[in-house]
Amino acid sequence: MEKSSSSDQKLDTLEVGNGSDFKVHIFSSSSELLENLHEKWSSVKNQPYPAMYSSVFGGIILDPALMLLPIDDHMVHRGHGVFDTAIILDGYLYELDVHLDRFLRSASKAKISSPFPQSVLRSILVQLSAASQCKKGTLRYWLSAGPGDFLLSPGGCTTSAFYAVVIDDDISQHKDGVKVITSTVPMKSPQFATMKNVNYLPNVLSKMEAEEKGAFASIWVDDEGYIAEGPNVNVAFINHDKELLVPLFDKILSGCTVKRLLALVPKLVEQGRLKAVRTTNITVEEAKGAAEMMFVGSTLPILPIITWDEQPIGEGKVGELTMALSDLLWDDMVAGPETQRLPVPYV
């Protein structure tokens, strides 16, 4: 066994394999491992994760080298977990309570009990946001069956676990249109699509399929031929009668942002800019024949879509009403009522 300082990257090694020259380092102490992790993170110029919370650790972590999950957590090796996301914009948390309500509904469907009541979860997330000092970004949080063992059943998990992280990110309006394709990756069944769980392999493959074809993302169509959703966003349309159409939520995730948009849209109806708003089944033919199309999601909040399967949507450019909807939602995010925007109590 060969040993030297970590500064020249010569580490303790153990020969593995049949005559292989590949050697695996054995960390002799936790301090040595931590030093190695700190070296890794020291090369990151702009630290994207200013703070994390872990119920396993029992507090907020500011050192990125320690932002870790147990490998025997049921969420890690079995995908038994749920998550959600809230936006931090100009020092305010947008729609935290709405997202937290959905988070706990997802947990109930996944048969995961929270280690804390909702009021405590909320307090943890607010304190985490404050400790991060982040004024613009995302607050992502997970609830898992917890660590315990590597069996299929979570029976060996003594308690559920709650994790959260603040991600420093730019949240802004999108004014350029993107291309989409129809996904060939099978969508999730309604039981799993209607809860925000961590089993996102279909979503990942759907997104990758689109990127491989030069598109931004894909659109799922259900087995009845109706429009469903994007890989991690809702989709909406404006038809030639100036009606805003949103797919029903019975087989897809009930998006917090698109539901907020539906609550705000009557303002444009009152102004005469839109004729009506409906949640309804939408066929592919109706969708591709729409005047305008868009993705709707927390981090977007609205992303215009101008081409679908190499065919233009409407005139093939960003629509006026799409941007009116974007402005409506953005105004709510930056200057909406206190029921939607919670000031972060930074120290």
From TrEMBL:
Protein family membership: Belongs to the class-IV pyridoxal-phosphate-dependent aminotransferase family.
Record text on subunit structure and interactions: Homodimer.
Q: Name one GO molecular function term.
A: pyridoxal phosphate binding
Q: What class of enzyme is it?
A: lyase
Q: Which reaction does it catalyse?
A: 4-amino-4-deoxychorismate = 4-aminobenzoate + pyruvate + H(+)
Q: What is its EC number?
A: 4.1.3.38
Any idea which UniProt keywords this protein has?
Folate biosynthesis, Lyase, Pyridoxal phosphate
Recorded coiled-coil stretches: none
Instruction: Indicate what this protein is called per its UniProt record.
Output: aminodeoxychorismate lyase
Q: Which gene encodes it?
A: LOC109012856
**Which cofactors?**
pyridoxal 5'-phosphate
Q: Which pathway does it serve?
A: Cofactor biosynthesis; tetrahydrofolate biosynthesis; 4-aminobenzoate from chorismate: step 2/2
A biological process (GO) of this protein is:
folic acid biosynthetic process
What broad taxonomic lineage does this protein's source fall under? Eukaryota, Viridiplantae, Streptophyta, Embryophyta, Tracheophyta
- SUPFAM superfamilies, per database record: D-aminoacid aminotransferase-like PLP-dependent enzymes
